Amino acid sequence: MNDFTLYKYVEFLMFSSYLIFIFLLAQIWFLWKDVEKNEFVLKSLVKESFFKKNCIYIFLFSTFFMAHEFFEGLNIPGTMVFFELLDTIAMMTLVLFAYTWYIALKSCVPKKSITKEFVSE
Question: DSSP label at 35?
Answer without folding.
Answer: S
